[in-house]
Amino acid sequence: MPKNLIIASTSTIHGSGYLEYLLPELETFYKNTDTIIFIPYARPGGISHDQYTDIASKAFKKIGKKIIGLHIFTDTIEAIENAEGIFTGGGNTFVLVNQLYKTNILPALRKKIFEGTPYLGTSAGSNICGLTMQTTNDMPITYPPSFKTIGALPFNINPHYLDPIKGSTHMGETRETRIKEFHAHNTIPVVGIREGSWLEVKNQTIQLKGTPTARIFEKGKAPYEIDTGSILDF
Amino acid sequence: MPKNLIIASTSTIHGSGYLEYLLPELETFYKNTDTIIFIPYARPGGISHDQYTDIASKAFKKIGKKIIGLHIFTDTIEAIENAEGIFTGGGNTFVLVNQLYKTNILPALRKKIFEGTPYLGTSAGSNICGLTMQTTNDMPITYPPSFKTIGALPFNINPHYLDPIKGSTHMGETRETRIKEFHAHNTIPVVGIREGSWLEVKNQTIQLKGTPTARIFEKGKAPYEIDTGSILDF
């Protein structure tokens, strides 16, 4: 199956503008695409679909791409079917997944991704590329009909992966403990991608790109690190 | 309605044993109770119900109380109905709530709480005292039939409340941003209780106890702090 995805931990790295660190990559990625359909459903900080689409538009204007928010279409399934390129932004994964089910676009979105349409996800938009959204960091502020997601990857994502903070006296679970709890109930591997890195999916090949290493969690194994440039084939 | 609850942010504070900081309080709280029914369903770190019950037993033995795990009863509803005292431990709120629905004990648990049976909750066990579990920090590692919880409080809890870490370069949402996103979709007030504090519910009075202040989030208002000793009556 042809596939062409960039699955990023974060839209924004510290001290830099929205998508800025990814723009050189995105220029190549979307080279055959003038217009990108933006899925603004995750509504970071509760902003509106229009406000969110404006933010994405401004960033993509710098590389000469036109962004159209999916929310303005009457027939959103048709809009996905006709998309030359797709971008799903971050925010709250529960809100995003709920809206994807409500608008019934998941099958069309999955089909487009498996046909090789360039797809960029950041944070919540990356989470939905996994088998389920169950390793999101977000609060369950809405109740989606299911936690199942697109399954463009044979594992789950934990975006904004965070190492335990040295010297912290906080007793809340670390990210690693939370993923360990996930594996007490599920067998799906989890890839913790740190801010500044992304997974590049080209057909059957999944490669870690960007600066930091990633942390891999497989049920029954000790977690381990992989370097940037690594092919993920576990 | 008579009510008698301790709703704690955490079971354990840094550098101290399980429940240690709360034991003097619990000695008075459970003074008319020899035996406490322990709800171990949240399974912190994926440990078994038996293992978790052992941990709780050891702590309560220090104040002469006997702990019985709810999981050993054939008729769990009857066990709740007959309970002299109840304690729900922390762990994963999704796993806990899923099991509460699966065993069908929520109505009995609610009835007991509204009859004044002493109830202690820590972390996930505190979350379920709110109107919904939607301000948990946990990962959605199981899919519960609903996010509705006991509603012993007229608001939601965010346990292990965490202030933004000064100088952090991490771009993942802060706790405050997450709760703000909750209020983009919901009107329920949220009380962020920091580790080392708890809410004491005596009939209609809810009071903040312990050391740190708590942070209150009401939709459409700026978040604000309340001191220990404050009565929560918003």
UniProtKB/TrEMBL annotation, chains A, B:
GO biological process, one term: proteolysis
InterPro entries: Class_I_gatase-like, Peptidase_S51
Entry superkingdom: Bacteria
Keywords, alphabetical: Hydrolase, Protease, Serine protease
GO molecular function, one term: serine-type peptidase activity
Keyword Hydrolase listed: yes
Keyword Repressor: no
CDD domains per the UniProt record, alphabetical: GAT1_Peptidase_E
Pfam families: Peptidase_S51 (PF03575)
PANTHER family, alphabetized: ALPHA-ASPARTYL DIPEPTIDASE, PROTEASE S51 ALPHA-ASPARTYL DIPEPTIDASE
Family according to the record: Belongs to the peptidase S51 family.
Protein name: Dipeptidase E
Naturally occurring in which organism (per UniProt): Dokdonia pacifica
